[in-house]
Amino acid sequence: MEVKHDDGNPLQLGDRIIYDGHFATVRYIGEITNTKDSWIGVEWDDSSRGKHNGTHEGKYYFSTEHPTGGSFVRPKKVKMGVSFYNAFQDRYGEEQGEEAGVITAELFVLDNNKKKTVVEMVGAKSVNKKQSQLASLVEVMVRDMAVYGVGPHSSELRTHGHSVEELDMAQNLLPSWCKVAAITECLPGLRSLNVSENKLVLPSNTAELQSAFPCLKVLYLNRIPYSWQKILECSLMFPLLQQLHICFNGITNLSDPQGRLQNLTLINLESNNVQSWSQVLHLSRLPKLESLIVSDNNIDAIALPDVNYGETSQHFQALKYLCVNYNKISEWSSINELNKLKSLKELKMIQNPLLNTAIPETVRQLIVAKVASLEHCNRTRVTKEERRGSEIDYLKRFGQLWIKSGGSQDENKNNPSTEFTNEHPRYQELVRVYGPPENSEMNQKEKTLKDSLITVTITSPFDPDKGSKQKKIPGTMTVQKLKALIMKLFKWDDRELQLSYETKKMKHVEIELDNDLRAVSFYSIEPGDTILVRW
């Protein structure tokens, strides 16, 4: 019995299937000794579902990478995939006899980092009819629809697919780039392609498929277990590529792009396993790279060793945007290094140990003062007023250290130590711009997170048996987080807490903490005050 897809095309070795919600690759089709009818031998993506390595009763039928990654399954229980054209018709085809109705369509427009929602009231039937016309569609999404390939309707796609610019085919049954190319060559205007969460075999000569991607500029290859070397091989298909997203792929090592990806302006390496900034430096060979995202890796420091402080690095000459969220950066020297970048305008670096070295306001001030070119920091614009204030505060904060290291308000005697200038490479520049700090301005003590802790007493009139507890809390803690801390501290079950506090300065006056998103410091809580908990 021949096993076929929904459109009549025969199932082939290497095709992808779904069985009981799990993905696998076809390794064998046919009969098995001492059994009836046909079987499909599969290699599971999740090898724990398998039972053997492709053998049955001592006879070899196929091989698997994992010794127990294989199984035999019956064809009638297998989801073998649909053609791209059939999936498209299923999602966008016109439904006959539909009642005219009213729907709300939301359009999200990114304008200066602001998201706008436009609500349009239209007849449901007219929208469905419009969607059914392939020639008018700009964006097509067939995500998670078990698409295996183009199917027998490529001529229809060639005739009507010229308007399609964005195509999302993530999480389907596409087995190879040849199958992807057979679809995209029918869409000559395609600019953005998402084939994430597919298991795509590369052709022996990737450059031969260039003609299937003549206009492609944006590519998503997330959750595809390609090494960096395979990414470079793959890139030969996309000579005009400008944006590349390769997240959650387990990439550990990077290397010189070797003349490839030369038009790339953005690369997203979020949630891989890149171990160090020295690996990231290989990407500086991309001459047009403006945006670099390396969030959620294992980077513990940033260094641009080709030049000294005060000089401009040859690395990442075009880089304007850098995102290093959720890494392990802990030293201020990494921020000093960023001032060597020629074009850096925006930095995102939430959830790094460095941000815990002082209260958030101080951390931001120091970043702004240390990196002269920043215009946005952690998604917030740096105004001229903020920059001036941050740089002047920076002078005051470290003025005493500057003096002790050999700095002087007398220009002829001003000679701070190398150790100081390495820790504060912009300090001398700021002295020239604003003048040296006065003695009266240098008495500020650098405020750390430890300095901002407030000792309070926490108690509940509703549960006096629990007694009172003293706790040090940061003034930057939100009321919402304080509630969570109290629940854990007193081991209370889930309940809706209401917080207020009493202060020694105002007897018999109780002030409500009425906004969960406000910081504790907003309510002017001071050491020795009492937090009252009710529900």
Per CATH, which architecture of the domain at 450-534?
Answer: Roll
The pLDDT mean sits at: 87
What is the end-to-end distance?
A: 68 Å
Poorly predicted runs of 5 or more residues:
97-128
Q: Helical residue percent? A: 10-25%
| Largest sheet composition | 11 strands, mixed
User: What's the CATH topology name of the domain at 450-534?
Assistant: Ubiquitin-like (UB roll)
Q: So what's the oligomer here?
A: single chain
Beta-strand content estimate: 15-25%
What is the name of the CATH superfamily of the domain at 450-534? Answer: Phosphatidylinositol 3-kinase Catalytic Subunit, Chain A, domain 1
Count of extended strands: 26
Helix count? Answer: 13
Evaluate the radius of gyration. Answer: 31 Å
CATH class of the domain at 450-534: Alpha Beta
Features of the shown structure:
single chain, 535 residues, alpha/beta, SH3 type barrels, eleven-stranded mixed β-sheet, 26 strands, globular
Commentary on this structure:
Among the domains are: about 15-80, Roll (SH3 type barrels), CATH 2.30.30; about 95-130, no CATH class; about 400-440, no CATH class; about 450-535, Roll (Ubiquitin-like (UB roll)), CATH 3.10.20.90. Helix 8 packs across helix 9 (about 385-395) and helix 9 packs across helix 12. The longest helix has 14 residues, at about 385-395. The strands form six sheets. The protein has an eleven-stranded mixed beta sheet, with helices on one face. The protein is α/β, with parallel strands linked by helices. Strand 8 (about 100-110) and strand 9 form a beta hairpin. It is about 20% helix and about 20% strand. It is built from 13 helices and 26 strands. It is globular, with a radius of gyration of 31 Å.
